[in-house]
Amino acid sequence: MQLSFRGARIRATLLLGSFLSLTCQAQQPRLTPELNKRLLLAAQGSVVALPGLLTEKLPVISYNKMVLPGPQYLISDDPEYIRVPEGMAFRETVTPGAVRVYLYNVNGVKTPAKIDTKIAALLKNTGSRPLHLRMLKFSSQKPTTSYFFAGKQGLADYFAAQPDTAIRTVQPGETIAIDPAQEKAIVKYDELVHGIYEFTIDETAEISVIQTTADKDIIKAAAGITTVLPGKSKSGAGRGVFGVSNYRVSADSVIDTKNGISQIIVADGRHDSWVKGIEGSSGAIATLAGNYGVLYNIDLKWKSSNGQGLALVTWNARSDNNQWCGAMANTMIASNGKFKGGIIQLPSDKLVTRKAPEAVLVQLFMPDGAGEEQTIHLTYSPPGASCLPTPLVFIPVDIK
Fold first, then answer.
1. How many whole angstroms separate alpha carbon 56 and alpha carbon 82?
2. Paired sense of beta strands 63-68 and 47-49, if any
3. What is the tens place of the pLDDT at every residue in 139-196?
4. What is each CA distance from 178 to 18, 206, 208, 366, in whole angstroms?
5. Between β-strands 131-144 and 168-170, what pairing exists: parallel, antiparallel or unpaired?
6. Buried b (16+ CB within 10 A) or exposed e, 230-255
7. How many CB atoms lie within 10 A of CB 82?
8. CATH code linked to domain 79-230
9. What share of the chain is helix, strand, coil (3-state, %, to 5)?
10. Which residues are the signal sequence here (predicted)?
11. Distance, CA of 257 to CA of 309 (rounded, Å)
């Protein structure tokens, strides 16, 4: 999973970038008439060239962050690349209630040869009574080497998912694949298995992620695998059960178009710290570098004291960090504006955005005729496979 590269070096680059953005004097680039026109004419989700406008030194919007009630949150992304033909990358215990599982693992077997494998997230009923599983949100992509596609489409599918009426029954001691298609899916070398699963259960259970060779039944193979592979490799955001699955973010003040361009930054490790959890196999404190899979429910007040509208764009701010940061792809939910509110793939006109001067238009919010305050609602989650942060930039625009 990408932060500013395919591994742990992210922490240094993220902290350095955030430090510079805090200590350098805020700059206000000039929105020329030509750039203003580009924003007004752009389609929602499209890439727009804004030369001279995008910088991490833009004024930062301060905000309050509150933990919202949410499901038990688990992520399997350490080791991200499973290098052995057969092994357990992740194992955690969950209690009755709601559970969110983020699966992000890659077939990394290349010694003595590259081979096909199977990778799946499994659930074992460790209770004494039948367990009933009901899927609330289901997002699963076929194994792919297009990590950006998996991250972007994975969020889009998750946001669009509706609760399933079907209930699966798991007998005491029985193990099932959370995503039945993964039992048979063949994963080639360097392919990512990506899934976000949110469900309810009524008994204690064990969640594990297993890799086995392509010729084996993965449920049967799991019975013979008892040891969790070492983590803390050169790749991966983290693994364990984490104490936060949902945040509510609200700005400390009203955004006013008369004050110029500003940005809100989440999931950067400084303005917004990484969430903590426990890794069950070792009992150690776990850090989720990137806060992947955590939902940010963002509510911002804004007004137009000068009759301008407010364009919201995002961009790949860490494109120059190293070879892994050359692109970004995301999906968000935004409230109504010039365009109908809802799920927006970013970008929508191509797979990824690259680097400045490329921006992606999320929404264009129109001013209230009387200059009254309005509310912007956004749902954001750090995009898997992309470097972080992906700032949300608010640009006042002349709409006449």
1. 35
2. unpaired
3. 999 999 999 999 999 999 999 999 999 999 999 999 999 999 999 999 999 999 999 9
4. 38, 11, 10, 43
5. antiparallel
6. ebebebbbbbbbbebbbbebebeeeb
7. 26
8. 2.60.120
9. 15, 40, 45
10. 1-26
11. 7
Q: Report the 3 state secondary structure along 125-152.
A: ECCCCCEEEEEEEEEEEEEECCHHHHHH
Q: Is the CB of residue 187 less than 8 Å from the CB of residue 212?
A: no
Is residue 93's pLDDT more than 50? yes
The DSSP symbol for 383 reads P
Is the separation of the CB atoms in 205 and 131 below 8 Å?
A: yes
Domain boundaries in the chain? Answer: 10-69+244-397, 79-230
> Which one-letter amino acid corresponds to residue 66?
M
| Residue 370 structure tokens | 């009387």
* Non-local CB neighbours of 246 within 8 Å, separated by 6+ positions: 67, 68, 69, 70, 294, 295, 297
Q: How many residues does the chain have?
A: 400
Q: Left (φ > 0), alpha (ψ -120 to 50) or beta: where does 370 sit? A: alpha
Q: pTM of the full predicted structure?
A: 0.93
- Strand 284-288 vs strand 275-279: parallel, antiparallel, or unpaired? antiparallel
Q: How far is CA 370 from CA 307, 334, 374, 395, in A?
A: 9, 23, 11, 20
CA-wise closest residue to 47 among 374, 350, 372, 389: 350
Residue labelled with tokens 């193979």: 221
Token pair for residue 117? 């494998």
As beta bridge partners, residue 298 has: 249, 378
Q: How far apart are CA 178 and CA 327, in angstroms?
A: 31
Residue 47's SS3 state is strand
Higher pLDDT, 27 or 31: 31
Cβ-contact 244, 88 below 8 angstroms: no
- Residue partners of 53: CB distance under 8 A and separation at least 6: 29, 31, 35, 261, 357, 359, 395
